[in-house]
Amino acid sequence: MVPPRYQAVYTDITQPSFDHAQSVCEIFGTGLGTVLDQLHFDALNTTLNSINAQDFCGERMVLGARSPGNSVWSWRTGEPVQNDWEHWYPTEPELLGEACMRMGITSVHWMVMFDHYCVNDESEIKRFKCCICDTVR
């Protein structure tokens, strides 16, 4: 299997939402990033290392998974994301309402996944400079 190609794309921080991030990826003929297996995770990690993602995007990036608020997660392509998925940060997922996935880069873990509100509030608005797009259909 050929791994997907990923790219980090700047988003308009005046429009900070999951839906806006998805529309940015669609401009490039792709969608928000999915990480379906270890091959995908490794490809994403390689891409982010090659562009020095922390300097380019900061510490938070939007990915293509969401939950309608019932703790059932799925990728934009329909595949499930398990609550015990190995790439969740140890205390995640924790939001009880509608939630979307973001990837964080921390000093302890290079890439970990967190749940987050699908529309950022004012305190978070400038923290999402990039979304991750991929070639998964």
Give a quick set of tags describing it:
26% strand, 8-stranded mixed sheet, 8 strands, alpha+beta, Mannose-Binding Protein A, Chain A, 137 residues
Give a nutshell description of this structure.
This protein is an alpha+beta fold. It is built from 3 helices and 8 strands, in the order E-H-E-H-H-E-E-E-E-E-E.
Which structural category do the helix and sheet elements fall into? alpha+beta
CATH topology: Mannose-Binding Protein A, Chain A
Share of β-strand residues: 25-35%
The CATH class turns out to be Alpha Beta
Total beta strands: 8
Number of H- or I-type helical stretches: 3
In N-to-C order, the SSE pattern is: EHEHHEEEEEE
Give the SSE map.
Layout: E1 6-10, H1 18-27, E2 31-32, H2 38-50, H3 53-57, E3 60-67, E4 73-75, E5 80-81, E6 99-104, E7 112-116, E8 130-134
Parallel strand pairs: 3-8
Antiparallel strand pairs: 1-8, 2-8, 3-4, 3-6, 4-5, 6-7
Structural features, described:
By secondary structure, this protein is α+β, with helices and mostly antiparallel strands. The chain has one domain (6-134): Mannose-Binding Protein A, subunit A (Mannose-Binding Protein A, Chain A). The protein has helices at 18-27, 38-50, 53-57; strands spanning 6-10, 31-32, 60-67, 73-75, 80-81, 99-104, 112-116, 130-134. Strands 1, 2, 3, 4, 5, 6, 7 and 8 form an eight-stranded mixed sheet that branches.
